[in-house]
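Risk mitigation, structural track. In case the binding assays with zinc ion fail to produce interpretable data, a predicted complex structure has been prepared as a fallback.
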Amino acid sequence: MRRVHPQDLRPGQAIATLRGVTLPDGSSSTLSIADGRIIAPPDAPLAPAVAAIAEREVEATGWLLLPPAADLHAHIDKAYTWSAAGEPEGSLEDAVACWRAFGSAVTEERIARNARRQLDAALRAGVTAVRTHVNYHEGVDPLRGIRAVLEAREDYRGLVDVQVVAMHDQFRDTGMIREAIALGIDLIGAAPHLSTDPHGEIDRAVTLAEEMGIGVDLHTDETLDPESLDLLHLARRTADWPEEITRSAGHCVSLAVQPPDRLAAVLDAAAEARVSIITNPLTNLYLQGWEHPVATPRALPPLAAILDAGVVLAAGGDNVQDPFNPLGNGDMVHVAAALVLAGHLAPRRAWDVVARGRELLGLGAAAGTVGDDADMILVRAASVAEALAERAPDRIVVRRGRVVATRLTASDAVPVSTRKEVAL
Ligand SMILES: [Zn+2]
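Fallback model:
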């Protein structure tokens, strides 16, 4: 078996042993991998047949294992359109209006190209699970974006697991939603707070989901209006659903402006109904608060209170360089950093939130313990805090024990020992 360093690994190569890797709790460990899982270290050298498959022993001292990231709220059908849309700026309502006008001319080919570009970026960043919302697009052929994203989902199978949420609004008839379900979408979506009848929209989504046997992921209370508490209605309507049927609420911004007793009651109801909350800090920092030129609210729901109430909390990168956020890039390291800076979670807790989304997609645990999937991001850092602070420039992405992507800084071209001479 050859011993190599993580920076020598290339996509396609399998890892047999990771020696001296740092785990998120700061301990150092040597991990053995076989058949795509972390196994107990073998007492004796691996049998020849196993050794032939598991090619490499990796000396990983100085590298940290991060459980792979899950982006539980994306819009890959809109990605990379900010410039083409005229470089708009403004609130959620402004962005929605811009998209309605601009999106009508976006072709299926362009949607497909941009969706693949975002999934490529996600893979290199170590985001191996993505739940994306997709609009019924304006103009002719409203299902073109859904078809484009479903094709991308198939292209990335085994690399990035993609769930597709088809996002209707009050102007889309139920027949069209049934068509999208027949095409193979995973979940029903909507943004009830933008409609004239939010509870009616939730009821329509829930009733249709029950009839079709699938789950829902709704944009929920993406507003600083404290009277918007659609989360409570969603919880009441799905409280008797079987546990395995998804009911997620994205954003939940108005939780940030509730009095403590009402907040506690709503979170208790969400926990009881097993509604998961997906927070999207980067987009909400950008979209909300334009009407508050001073003391601008951060517009993140109270993350610690959500976790303490026993609600499953995951996170999303949300918009990637589109009219809803010109600066999103789908990199969940940046999202985790925002959960620390704007949401006041400790760095390790923030990464737990970012990794937790795997569970909502039905993927197995991947925390580097025996029996886990051998899925991970190796980053050159001493701790989770350092990885988030430095934004983890060097990353090796591993799925089922095999390298699937690498991202290394150019400094690797010059060994540390010779950098000084180069400088001189
Ligand atoms: Zn969204």
